[in-house]
Amino acid sequence: MLKWAAIFFIIAIVAAIFGFTGIAAGAASIAKVLFFIFLVLFIIVLIFGSRIFGK
Question: What pTM value is reported for the model?
Fold first, then answer.
């Protein structure tokens, strides 16, 4: 998921360079949402990972 957030971030940067503000804003917002979903899932796994995946 972090990979997709990075891809949309790069798309937003390229679109901003060429002046496609609508596309840049859309790609940046998608990247932001995916990053926060990744961050929440990472924290959940970090906290409860030993219980879920523990031995």
Answer: 0.64
